[in-house]
Amino acid sequence: MTWYTLLVLAVAAERLAELVVARRNAAWTRARDGVEHGRGHYPAMVVLHTGLLAGCLLEPLLAGRPFLPALGWPALALALLAQALRWWCITTLGPYWNTRVIVVPGARLVGAGPYRFLRHPNYVAVVVEGAALPLVHSAWITATVFTLADAVLLTVRIRCENAALTHAVPA
């Protein structure tokens, strides 16, 4: 469980790094008259993602979940690939990337990197990580609850982003 705890703590540290980048990017976009959309769902997103990390640590401890190599190693590979995809998205969007939905009016849509293939590739990373990270240590309840709750949240979030991006200029 020690190495798994370190993995979850590393993901938590990565989330804090994302927040630093997001805060810097929010200042950049607001300085360019960026408009925030969907503030109402943001606190739920924070709670859900914090709950994911807490559940990853608590469920294996409280329910005695073992590390099952046949499940754990592939789940770890998927969780790491999700991180790589997330940072590919972040670096591709540059200062336009944010944990909030902030759009600079008249800005061009990004059509490079993973955005060549999908409109919202970051959410592929979120979905994969939300299922895979808990399963590294057999936390199937956490994986299931997060996945179901995240499906509801992503429905709201993607609608919000799509509506906000209608003001952007096609690439």
UniProtKB/TrEMBL annotation:
| Keyword Transmembrane helix annotated | yes
Supply the alphabetized keyword list.
Membrane, Methyltransferase, Transferase, Transmembrane, Transmembrane helix
Which membrane topology term applies here?
A: Multi-pass membrane protein
Instruction: Give the principal location in a single coarse category.
Output: membrane
Q: Which InterPro entries match?
A: ICMT_MeTrfase, Metal_cation-efflux_comp
What is its subcellular localisation? Membrane
| MF GO annotations | methyltransferase activity
Q: Looking at the keywords, is Transmembrane helix present? A: yes
Report the Gene3D superfamilies cross-referenced here: 1.20.120.1630
UniProt superkingdom = Bacteria
Q: Which GO terms describe its biological process?
A: methylation
Q: Which PANTHER family match?
A: BLL3993 PROTEIN
Descriptive protein name = Isoprenylcysteine carboxyl methyltransferase family protein
Native source species? Streptomyces cellulosae
